Each structure stands twice: as C-alpha cells, then as structure tokens.
Hints:
This protein is mainly β. Helices cover 3% and strands 45% of the residues. It is globular and about 60 Å long.
Amino acid sequence: MGIGFMYPEERDIHPLERSQNMEIVVQGRTFSIDLLLSGTSGRVFLVTALLDYEQVPFRLDGKEGLIHQITLPEEMDFSRDLVLPLEVDIPTDGIHDFIVIAFDTTILAQPNADTLMSRFAAIGRRTRLLVGDATSTPALPLPIRAQPIQNEEEVWAIDDLWLSRAECGLGYRQRHPLSMGCQLYWDEDPKERRYPFTIWVGDNYRTVNEPGERRGIVLFHNYHLVPFGGNRFVTLVDVPQGHELVLPMHVELHDGVNIIQAFEIYEPYTSFFENTDSFVYKTTFPAAIIWK
C-alpha cells in the first residue's frame, strides 16, 4: 500500500517532476490537495486525518467525515494511484502538522496471528503547513512526557515501537516488554472492560554520543485517537541510544473486536528540509482484543 499528496494542477505531470508538498504555505483557512492511495484492487481503507495531533473532520472526494471508507477499484494495482480531492479547515495561524493515515481493513477483517503480524496494516503521510503570520510558531506545544531508562545490558530492539502486556515492564523482576509472552498481538475475553497495556519505545540504533530524536507517539483504538491524559492526544519522547521506556495506557473495550495500534512521528513540527521523514510508517503491530 502507498500514500502521498499531489497538487490538483499537477495531475498530468510526471511524479518525478511535480512540486514538493512536504512543506506548504497555505493561503486562507482551507488547505486543499489531492490524496494518493495505491494498493491491490478491492482493498478497503479507513482514512483519517490529524491536524496538530488531534483527529479532525475533513472532506475527501466531496464527503465530510472523521473517518472515510475507501475501496480501491477492481482495476487498481501498484502502478496506479487512486486520486481523491482532500480539504481540511485550519482554525489558527502558525506551523501546523497535518497527517493522513490509511488503515487497511482488508488485513484486519478477520484478525488472527498471521494478519496481526503485519506492519503493512496502516501507513501515513505528514506535511507541514505554514499559515498566516505566525509561521515560526508551532500550533501545539509538545512537552516531553516520559523519562527514558538506560539499559546497562542491551536495548532489545533497534529504534522500535511495540505494544506489550501490562504485567511486563522495566522494573526489578519484571519480564521485559519484548520477552516471550509479553508482546501484545491478541487477547481474548479479558477480565475487565478497562484494558491496561503499555507502549514500549527503545533505541539501539545511534552511536553512544549521538543525541536521540524527538518522537511523537499517537495511539488509535478502533481507528479513533486515544488521549494520553486530559485532552492531549500525543506524547513526546526523546530516547537516546541505549535507552528505552514504557508508556502505561488503557482503553475501554467495546463489544466484539477491538483494534489497538500506536504510531511514531519523527520530530513533530520540524522542517522537512532538515532531513525529517514525511512518511508515517513506524507503527506497532496491531493488537486485537476480544471482549464478549
């Protein structure tokens, strides 16, 4: 599956010759662009948008909504893009992060061990919007919420993000969140509707003296954004090399299948001309929790 943006006036221009759309000066209070989706025919996507790390309604292909269901036509393949006009209203001046995420519900239609072990169940694209006079000020301040713990032995994974069971952690005599039986992919008929778990973040990729990268973490439950506390729907972490942390979380389960998935956004609000990645592809495996 693939995702991208394109200016409507450049639809007939070869992709390699189109203008950059990672950083855009927006005139007025409405941002308009074409959304590009690609994949195999028949796949069903749920498409949602974040403006400054809050899930917002937007217009896609002329329809208003918080989440849009898009089915790729039968003649689709990876050599073609489905082009969908997109518009979103922007309430204030400033630097805005705008993110579109597409969930591939075809993969998750019948959750099992094979489908849940896929990081291709969702992908996103971020662009930086400069609106009005306050184009040096991020629209949302992002305080660092969590303090990483240095692992004196070895961080278990390279620059990664996982969902883990609540009983596992980094404390003395606790099983590590990534050890066997701690990684969260599936849980059936838990004891309580209030379901606790953790998000594990680690980094063993950079050299010891190289600083970490700020990462914005967002969490979805059944394709809706979950707050980290109060009205905050994003938390910012800075994980130096050899460090790791866990973020305790919980969701209120609905009847039936509950899909939980977290995403990382590198260096929120940072200019893409500073080598920041515009694609949102670092995500946990989705977890399916069954409440009967």
